[in-house]
Design a protein that fits this description.
Oligomer: single chain
Radius of gyration: 26 Å
Order of helices and strands: HHHHH
Shape: elongated
Number of strands: 0
Strand content: under 5%
Largest sheet: none
Distance between the termini: 46 Å
Helix content: 40-55%
């Protein structure tokens, strides 16, 4: 069995006159290959295209003037969570936290067991971390559309 042939680069006179337009379409319909190239602008462009496909809206439709970049991303993620229950469940698993009453009860139990000598407090060099993890979204950067 022969290995598939690699596409040959076009000769000088075979240059595609639509190459620039195809390149824009290529980047619009996918995320960058290199992770360091994935920024908010690339993600918004990809999300906007995905919404266009699903909602049958053109990319330059005036409806997009009514949305901020974060709103576009919210729409995109909402659609993805609706489409993919596994993705939704994975995200939801990260949201589960203990209630304040539960944390208070655990701290009281720990104190009680320490007094009874059933557990020993281990000295630590760093301060105790909160059992709850807080989600802090990245600051939103304003940018100018260059297309």
């Amino acid at each position: 069995m022969k290995a598939p042939k690699k596409p040959k680069p076009p000769k000088a006179k075979e240059i595609d006159p639509f190459f620039g337009l195809k390149l824009i379409a290529y980047y619009r319909t996918g995320l960058p290959v290199n992770e360091e190239d994935l920024d908010e602008e690339a993600m918004v462009q990809f999300a906007k295209w995905q919404i266009c496909k699903i909602k049958n809206v053109l990319f330059n439709d005036p409806v997009w003037d009514n949305y901020t970049d974060p709103e576009i991303l919210i729409e995109f993620f909402a659609i993805k969570f609706d489409e993919n229950e596994k993705l939704r469940d994975e995200f939801q698993a990260g949201l589960v936290t203990a209630k304040k009453a539960d944390v208070d009860w655990m701290l009281r139990q720990e104190e009680k067991l320490l007094k009874q000598g059933k557990i020993k407090e281990e000295p630590s060099e760093k301060p105790k971390e909160s059992p709850l993890v807080e989600f802090k979204p990245a600051p939103v950067e304003e940018f100018e559309d260059k297309f």
